[in-house]
Amino acid sequence: MLRLIQRSHIAFAHDILMAALSFPLALYLRVGDGVAYYSLDNIIFSAAIFTLIAAVSFWYFGLYRGIWRYASLNDVIRIAKAVSVAVAALFIVLFLTTRLDWMPRSAPIIQWFLLMAMLGGSRLTYRIAKDKSTARALVRQGTTRLPVLLIGAGDEAEAFIRETERSADTPFRVIGIVSLTQGRVGRNMHGVDVLATVDQLEDVIKKLEKSRYGLPRRLVLSGDALRHEDNAKWVEIADRYGMTLARLPKLGDLREGLADPLQIRPVAIEDLLGRPQARLDRERVRQMIAGKRVLVTGAGGSIGSELVRQIASYGPLSLTLVDAGEYQLYAIDMEMAEKYPDIARDSILGDVRDRTRIGQVFGRHAPEIVFHAAAYKHVPLVEHNPNEGILTNTLGTRNVAEACREAGVGTMVLISTDKAVNPANVMGASKRLAECYCQALETLPADQRGPTRFVTVRFGNVLGSTGSVVPLFKRQLEEGGPLTVTHQDITRYFMTIAEAVELVLQSAELGRHGVTDGGKIFVLDMGRPVKIVDLARQMILLSGLQPDKDVEIKVTGLRPGEKLYEELFHDSEPPVPTDTDGVMLAAPRVVDYEKIRQVFAALDESASGRDTHKTLDLISQLVPEFQPPEIGVKSIFADGATDAPGSAVVTDLDKAAGGSA
Question: pTM, whole model, 2 decimals?
Fold first, then answer.
């Protein structure tokens, strides 16, 4: 500590000395040898006054706190502010004391530029000298740095290169940059050349291999490269040439001080989605949530728990967490207690099937915003247990929606799924029924609907959610394989959990202003569908192994109710963009509320009685594209319009009239 104090004092003394010299030097630069004819008393008085003023100004702006070894643009800005204040103050003092009769009016301007050069130049000279001494020390020590090739020529790459040149501890040496655009090719960044664009990546690697640098040991992604549509190909290229694939921290983490520019991280499968970065208006979401009572069903699940985390960050008045799973609810409750102890919170064990329990919760907590994430989502399980799927996904949604109406909730947000489009399975059909109910409520006249806006948000798979393919592949990799894929051509849409929840919150903010009038629903832009077999290959490569050599990829066949591909829109509901990136609007068929209420009452009776045949019959009345075998029903839609029929799936339960699910 003493050493640091002494160094800061030396820096401060240096700045004061430069300030004292700047006034007579500026005067000399202005009048040359004519300075000999000026009053020495005036010069000494003015220099002394300026030195005193500068000392106060430099201390106030903290110039002495800057570490010259790391002088940067921020230091230059502080110097400019301090010098400007000091020169302006001197001008005022001299005007009040001498009326500036003896001093040239241009002298303060010359002094400003001169002092800026004296203060900034000394810092720059020191930094250059230290950087060179560091480089010489590395040579003396025989330090060998790993050669790396950067993809992306943005701010993250610049920060990384700058730190590698400055730091004596970094094990990396950047030997080239591959740009995402043509504009920066041929230029250089801190002496490192931008060699080509990404479409010439393999050519660049081959040329470097034959050059004095040798083959790069790591291929490092930076900035927009993480969201580039071709980044999945780079995994295979890196593997082909025996390179490790890594990534730099995001620019936001660097700016907020959450990451070290030299911190190279392994590439996760989430980094390879190639999704564009959506521009989000978090301030509008904050205005929606801050100071409000918020309730989340399914709060312990993958989506529900992330909803709770992000909602808590916006400062709600209170949080009510509802879940039927004891451990999941306990886990998110403990997390909130540790991270947000000041937010009023109540964690409630409750099943959305239980209308009485849900009514009690709403009556006690009077939520203003409700996010309904509770659902069964695993296709094969719901396919074999259709009544349970209907009781939770469909009738549970009805219970929550009606509780919202009775409690006068401002906004209810239903989390839906792309499997609700042309559903070929009970899970998808049960979620489509949930959509239908919320749509029907949203189209009611305001005097019947009440103050509640019913907002539905539909999206595809999220990476890392419980029971999803990525955790399955990770577990299979840990066990040595094989990785199981149900079909060679099966595709799915993917999004990270955090991004999906952010867009759900953005959708909720839009929906509360009436954007969903007429029963429209929000659909998140999921980007391009991903082949599951390609996802498996990439995960094997990222683990440093070879697909079909070190780890087998095994095709097991489609499961009951599983489709080769998912859709985000029906043919009859073309997407319409909204003001928010990544969020679109669709207008699916809307069912009359009285009709859907009657069918739901019948569904309640059949599902509660485990009358599977009757349950499936009733489902197909509201969702005509879902047609179980041997069930021919007439659609309740007046116009008789249907979407393209989904493929029927035959299971023992489909055939069992009245069988227990």
Answer: 0.66
